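= Protein in question =
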Amino acid sequence: MNNTKGVQSILLVGVGGQGTILISKILSAGFMQRGYDVKMSEIHGMSQRGGSVTTQIRYGDKVYSPTIGMGEADVIIAFEKAEALRALPYLKKGGIMIMDDYEIYPMPVLTGKAEYPSGAVEAISDAGVEPIVIKAAEIAEGLGNVRAQNIVLLGALVKAWDLGDIEWESLIREYVPAKATDINLRAYAAGRDL
């Protein structure tokens, strides 16, 4: 597993309904199975109305707080491009950003009171970060359910950050509804194989 010495920090950012909290619970359970001390924190910003949802996970030998400060995230997983841009200041130098090439327009954009930030990937690259950009929502939709986007992102994280020594498939079976197990296992495999 990647850098098991010290505390590791993962920041997940998305929009209400995208499954950020579910993937956080799966990640936390996996890290606990490996014997790590794990702390998790969720922040919901009108999540049921398409607002931002942020989850912070910190794990290591001893973790005192779930809070990730500016420039402290080892990994950011962004479910949506504008949220990736908003979370960028939290990424530490040399950290990994995995982002879905996906846009969700908030109410101010839909009503014409604001513009969606264009060029998110380019702006992140200009800041010195080379994000791993995948089409997780598109892949999940191709598998039959866009809601499996979060598990595609989990698979991508497992590969990008060398977390393959945890039984992620059994955790997916444990945490997703039984009727969605098959599609989520396929979504995980698709993300891991990217």
